[in-house]
Write a structure and sequence with these properties.
By secondary structure, the chain is an alpha+beta fold. It contains six helices and ten strands; from the N terminus they run E-H-E-E-E-E-H-E-H-H-E-H-E-E-H-E. It has one domain: Gcn5-related N-acetyltransferase (GNAT) (Aminopeptidase). Strands 1, 4, 5, 6, 7, 8, 9 and 10 form an eight-stranded mixed beta sheet that branches. A two-stranded antiparallel ribbon has the order 2-3. Helix 4 packs across helix 6.
């Protein structure tokens, strides 16, 4: 099965693994997607991305078993006095009718470029290199590993949600990503209108933890040849 190619772990502040986690966030959100400005925080000259909600979150990192490289990450913001990031940035047309102590937020979900890029895509740096020096395009298998890594991250996030008594989770993402996650077993529901004030426009969603339990219970039954179809517009697996 594809997920055996990856290992997931909870990372804590002050560890090298946590720095690798923040570095991957910086690479995806600040450098590649340019959705978040860099705050010029570094670890051994490596730029990191972090915010005030990290102190109220639990963090998951995915590594390649073959190379040890960080290839995916996400966080779960726990109920806290500061509140959730999404409720301060997105209007909500659907209110979750449970205690705020049971609501969390999934965010900073990111998959490395090697697992989400379109075949033939080259980095801006690579365009100025000779063909022999340019990075090889991602193979079809690598490209399709992205949804599996996302599935694994959601697996770990909802284990943590259950551990902390969270029954519902918010997330802000592009509708194309919500459609992809629904296809691989995580049926997010719309919580509010599309927000055009952020680029690219994103929408708030919510997901009930009990719906996910059956997905997680059956995820090991997927045949090894199962490949979720990923369109060009859905190849960027990232949500803030």
């Amino acid at each position: 099965m594809v997920e055996k190619k990856f290992v997931y772990s909870i990372v804590t502040p002050g560890t090298r693994a946590y720095s690798d986690y923040l570095s991957l966030r910086h690479t995806v959100f600040c450098e590649e997607l340019k959705r978040i400005p860099s705050i010029n925080r570094f670890f051994s000259d490596v730029p990191l991305e972090c915010d005030a909600y990290d102190a109220h979150s639990v963090h998951v990192l995915c590594r390649s078993l073959e190379t040890g490289a960080a290839v995916g990450c996400s966080r779960l913001i726990l109920p806290n006095n500061k509140g959730l990031s999404i409720t301060s940035r997105y209007p909500m047309s659907h209110q979750i009718t449970v205690s705020s102590s049971q609501i969390g937020e999934i965010g900073r979900l990111a998959i490395s470029k090697e697992l989400r890029r379109n075949r033939g895509e080259l980095s801006s740096a690579g365009l100025h290199q000779r063909p022999s020096q340019r990075p090889h395009p991602a193979s079809a298998t690598e490209k399709q590993d992205g949804p599996y890594v996302a599935m694994g991250l959601y697996n770990e996030i909802f284990k943590l949600a259950n551990k902390h008594g969270i029954t519902h989770c918010y997330a802000a993402m592009e509708p194309s990503l919500a459609r992809l996650l629904t296809r691989i077993g995580f049926p997010f529901q719309i919580a509010g209108p599309l927000n055009h004030a952020v680029q690219p426009p994103r929408q708030p969603y919510f997901l009930e933890a009990h719906v996910v339990k059956s997905v997680l219970a059956n995820r090991d039954t997927y045949p090894s040849h199962f490949r979720p179809r990923v369109s060009r517009n859905e190849s960027v697996l990232a949500c803030q």
